[in-house]
Amino acid sequence: QVQLVESGGGLAQPGGSLRLSCAASGFTFSLYSMSWVRQAPGKGLEWVSGIYSDGTGTWYTDSVKGRFTISRDNTKNTLYLQMNSLKPEDTALYYCAKETFAGRLIADFGSWGQGTQVTVSS
What we know:
Helix content is 0%, strand content 50%. By secondary structure, it is mainly β. The strands form two sheets. Strands 2, 4, 5, 6, 9, 10 and 11 form a seven-stranded mixed beta sheet that branches.
């Protein structure tokens, strides 16, 4: 079965950096686009970033453009999110998510990880 396990969250100061990882198993990772989705306290889900299966195309929500970088290593079945210049409004539970169908990046998520907490505070 599909398993997505996030790690790398924690407490960071404003302006600091964190790198999230998502270890994937139970499916052919290299065929699926992957994304990061977050949920801030008291708010709904927000699609943060996505990456196509071969890593050649990416998408970012406006609030993180220029600060976050999504990447993947298909040899290690791992998705990453490098987060720089962190702001308090980046505080959220960050989820790794897999597209339902191979070959698309449309925020149609069929599988989710358990999430990793990111807190940005001084």
